[in-house]
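[Discussion] Sanity-checking designs against the backbone

I'm trying to build intuition for which residues belong where. Below is a structure token string of 177 positions. I'd appreciate it if someone posts a full sequence so I can compare it with mine line by line.
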């Protein structure tokens, strides 16, 4: 799998391959208990664990699992989040995941990043469907997906497991016209 070339950008927000220098973004992500709970971000951050996280992101493309990119502020090239497009087992179906570090929230950063990822993922990965699974309590993520054109399709009961507890997942999808 290949990363977008050139990198994706709207002039304010960009998506690019993770760099080891982005380790501070992983540190900030670990300060929000919700991010490590549902991802592989280390809950107990150390620089070594942060680098291991970045190296795992690189391997995802190498193994064909999907493409994980840093969400960056274009002006500073500072990583402020993650955008993940996974390949589902079903042909031509992708899964979307993302997070933004607490200091960068409330600026529609996640919505901008999702909007950047959509056309690239649909074309480059030959997707016919892009879906996201969201905990029902995660209203911010539901708003991001709705603003980016996703539609809520349904609920998968007891589908997600975080911190050894099960929760429902709301299914959002985007299908090209």
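Best answer:
Here's mine. Compare freely.
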């Amino acid at each position: 799998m290949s990363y977008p070339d050139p990198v994706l950008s709207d002039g304010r927000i960009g998506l690019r391959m993770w760099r080891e220098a982005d380790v501070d973004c992983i540190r900030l992500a670990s300060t929000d208990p919700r991010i490590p709970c549902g991802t592989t971000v280390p809950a107990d951050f150390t620089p070594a664990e942060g680098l291991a996280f970045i190296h795992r992101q690189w391997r995802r493309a190498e193994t064909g699992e999907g493409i994980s990119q840093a969400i960056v502020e274009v002006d500073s090239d500072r990583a402020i989040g993650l955008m993940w497009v996974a390949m589902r087992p079903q042909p031509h179906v992708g899964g979307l995941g993302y997070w933004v570090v607490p200091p960068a929230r409330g600026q529609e950063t996640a919505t901008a990043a999702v909007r950047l990822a959509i056309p690239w993922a649909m074309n480059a990965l030959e997707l016919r469907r892009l879906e996201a699974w969201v905990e029902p309590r995660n209203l911010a993520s539901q708003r991001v997906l709705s603003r980016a054109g996703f539609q809520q399709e349904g609920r998968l009961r007891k589908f997600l497991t975080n911190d050894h507890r099960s929760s429902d997942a709301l299914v959002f999808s985007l299908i090209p016209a």
